Fold:
Amino acid sequence: MPSLLSTGDDDGVIKLWDPRQKECTRKYTHHFDYITDFLWLEDKKQLVATSGDGSLSVIDVRSKKTEPFAHSEDQEDELLSIVAIKGATKVVVGTQIGILSIFNRSAGWGDCVDRVPGHPHSIDALCNLPPDLAGVDTASTILTGSSDGFVRAVQILPTKLLGVVADHGDWPVERISIGGGAGQLTLDSSEAGKNGNNVGNKADIDSDGEAVDRGRTRWWVGSVGHEESVRLTDLEGFFHEANRKGADDPEESLGASGEQGEVEDVEENDDNDSEAEPEAEPQEKPDSEEDSDEDDVPQVKKRKRKPEKNPLVVNKKGKNTVDVSEPTFFDGL
Structure:
């Protein structure tokens, strides 16, 4: 079978191209809005397309029919990106409202079987991890690029935010890709020539300060945003740092439960303070003063629990933000 290329335009038209011919070999017009992404299923020789009309379609490229093999129901949201997980048995689709829709191939393509909320903005890009990446469940972990400027590492089923891989600021992330290479390339302004294209090789050192073997393959994440620049991130170094932080701070991944523990600690401190205060000896007072004393009795304030945080939301902290972790004298006034 010759190699084919697939294209999708703003009108929802999908075309298959043979590089040896000037005209397209096949054209599909079952979508009425722009095509956003493609996914190739090697085992069935099928092409899955997502569209802004809120549906996805499956095309059997071996068939000469111009109708899709399967067409999903309207998901009531724009489908922007798609990637396969769990050995291509399940498919993850990113949507405009920040929900990851899970499709199970064994259950059919009619509707999604699960929805994973959490992203505060649209999910414009999805990317798989290389299968030989050590220390990571690559079958269920993906990279997501959102319009809030963050590239996240997310584990699906069970759902868990592993961390932020790259930050593009206020610029939406358009595409994510992973490539391998030996050694680390860095641009050194002192070594750059007049054209600024000289690249110098520097010693590779990991987060622990140990030299890294240049002979082995290192995986790099390239993410592109609207700021017209490419950000490269050491993927293995990111997961190494994330695993180390998870081992040092196991409560960090608990989300709201960690905050609940902080509230309980504050309450215990208040109890200890109350026990440490000396008890005053009761004194007899006239009846006229007892009524006034009842009004002056301070009422116990009820503590409000903090709302649960979204595990996939990343809050940007300002430079002048001050964290107050201990109660002060003014809290009792």
About this structure: The first helix runs from residue 235 to 248. The CA atoms of residues 227 and 321 lie 27 Å apart.
